[in-house]
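Narrative of accomplishments. A recurring question from our advisory board has been how the design workflow behaves on a single, concrete structure rather than in aggregate. To address it, we present the structure tokens for one chain from the evaluation set, followed by the sequence designed for it. No filtering or post-editing was applied between the two.
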């Protein structure tokens, strides 16, 4: 197994983010790896902003929904002691943008939460499944509690 140096934690601001984040932090610590955190904005409208746009975290916007997303990211990243230079907010479609980001930033391992869906839900696809099939690096899916 190759040594992971750059680990990317992807979050969706669900109730299970803390569970996945703790595992990512512990793994990064064990491997002495850099831990970055990424949230893809796909659930709020972003007028006049194309997919793949990196949202500046150090600039205030007049958009309350965007500011709320920035605050959530900051709170979790602060808890995990992730450097401000390793925090990312990108507008787009999660499975595509996560894979593109990982390739661009030379990420060795992507960590995603997974519900372990079956049947129709699996056929329709999940973010974890999409990342697994689009990423050019390793992907670790953390099974989320029921």
């Amino acid at each position: 197994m190759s040594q992971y140096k750059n680990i990317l934690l992807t979050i969706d601001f669900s109730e299970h983010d803390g569970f996945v984040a703790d595992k990512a932090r512990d793994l990064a610590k064990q491997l002495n790896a850099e831990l970055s955190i990424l949230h893809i904005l796909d659930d709020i409208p972003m007028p006049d902003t194309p997919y793949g746009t990196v949202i500046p975290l150090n600039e205030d916007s007049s958009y309350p929904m965007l500011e709320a997303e920035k605050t959530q990211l900051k709170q979790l990243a602060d808890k995990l002691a992730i450097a401000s230079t390793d925090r990312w907010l990108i507008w787009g479609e999660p499975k595509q943008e996560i894979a593109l980001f990982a390739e661009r930033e030379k990420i060795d391992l992507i960590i995603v939460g997974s519900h372990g869906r079956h049947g129709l839900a699996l056929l329709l696809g999940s973010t974890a499944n999409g990342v697994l099939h689009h990423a050019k690096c390793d992907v670790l899916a953390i099974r989320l509690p029921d």
